[in-house]
Design brief:
This protein has 369 residues and is α+β, with helices and mostly antiparallel strands. Helices cover 41% and strands 17% of the residues. Strand 4 and strand 5 form a beta hairpin. It is rod-shaped, with a radius of gyration of 45 Å.
Length: 369
């Protein structure tokens, strides 16, 4: 070998030594982390002269070989593909609720009973589902945390939902229904609409008639009344004065009309047409603890409601009036009341009786608005 060949030989030996340093001395696998480290293939650790256990799944996930390489940003499709099942289930339920609410708005007429019932039903079901899931989450929270108090279900409302969220995906169906309970309520009010809040809170229960009126009815029914006629009752109540309003001789031309009074009156009878439909009801009201005849009035109701009223009165027919009257009518037991307005003349006699409405029984349950 000549002198000119010696440098090339030395370079070759150095290259081979360097290559051997980058390989595992046991399995000749490439040492990607440099010499003196652990071989990812066989687990040989030259620094201690022994094999160690290698978690190949973890090493593959870490992928040291590409640690310095620039990472490519994840696309929106990659993010959607990696979303958990419970996320898709919640989102799908939300979209379904929104679509159903929009369809309900277009399929029903504005201010129609169908739209109102649809919205009310969705509002009620949404609130019920949310409450049930919220309560279930609270029970789960209490079962594992003894420091939770009963009032925390209201003052710490996020606690139950945090507990349910921690139990995903096991509770994914329950969680998805619960979180969409509030959107269901919101869509019922905002998207569907048509809710009549006055009707929603009106359950047909009115305050019962005054105690004085009920006591007067009970007294009259029990024989406590003195069976006075209309004229006698008026004479008892009238003060010493000229003729009643509308016909007094000394009435001044510029005298103001008597103010109207509205009172709750009891129905004591009615007059009907040939078909048995009531066209006039006879009313009595309480005056100084006694049941006194007020007058007849025409109910301002349509034909259907008149039939309902007539049927209700037929079922409580009586042989004689609760207040003694010389008049022809079909008498009923005093079980229904209504509101009426009237004026009182100078002699104390009521006149110009007008129908106000709200037929209800003595317990306050409404029969007719």
């Amino acid at each position: 070998m000549g002198l000119t060949d010696q440098p090339s030989t030395l370079l070759q030996d150095e290259a081979e030594g360097s290559a051997r340093k980058d390989q595992c001395e046991k399995c000749a696998a490439k040492m990607t982390d440099g010499p003196g480290t652990v071989c990812k293939s066989c687990g040989w650790y030259a620094a201690i002269g022994a094999h160690i256990e290698i978690d190949h799944a973890y090493e593959a996930a870490i992928d040291y070989s590409n640690s310095d390489a620039p990472r490519q940003a994840a696309s929106p499709f990659d993010l959607l593909a990696s979303a958990p099942t419970w996320c898709w289930l919640s989102l799908g339920t939300f979209v379904l609720l929104l679509s159903e609410s929009i369809a309900a708005r277009f399929l029903t007429a504005p201010d129609s009973p169908e739209r109102a019932w649809w919205a009310a039903l969705q509002l009620g079901l949404g609130a019920l589902v949310f409450f049930v899931v919220h309560t279930f989450g609270f029970v789960r929270q209490v079962s594992e945390d003894t420091e939770v108090a009963l009032l925390d279900i209201l003052i710490s409302p996020f606690g139950p939902w945090k507990k349910l969220f921690g139990e995903l995906p096991k509770r994914q169906t329950l969680f998805s229904l619960g979180v969409n309970g509030l959107p269901a309520v919101l869509f019922a009010v905002v998207v569907i609409g048509g809710l009549n809040w006055d009707k929603l809170w009106d359950w047909g229960i009115e305050a019962p008639p005054s105690k004085d009126l009920r006591d007067a009815i009970a007294s009259q029914m029990g024989g406590g009344g003195d069976d006075k006629s209309l004229e006698e009752s008026v004479e008892e109540l009238a003060a010493a004065a000229p003729d009643e309003a509308g016909g007094s001789k000394g009435k001044k031309e510029n005298e103001k009309p008597a103010p109207r009074t509205t009172a709750t009156c009891v129905i004591i009878g009615y007059r009907a047409d040939a078909n048995g439909v009531a066209h006039t009801v006879l009313l009595a009201h309480e005056v100084y603890g006694k049941l006194t005849y007020l007058g007849g009035v025409t109910p301002q109701l349509d034909r259907e409601m008149l039939s309902v009223l007539s049927q209700a009165l037929v079922e409580i027919r009586a042989r004689k009036p609760v207040v003694k009257l010389e008049s022809e009518a079909i008498w009923v037991h005093p079980q229904y009341v209504c509101d009426a307005s009237f004026q009182v003349g100078a002699t104390g006699k009521p006149f110009d009786v007008q129908w106000v409405g709200k037929v209800r029984n003595l317990r306050g349950s409404t029969l007719i608005e």
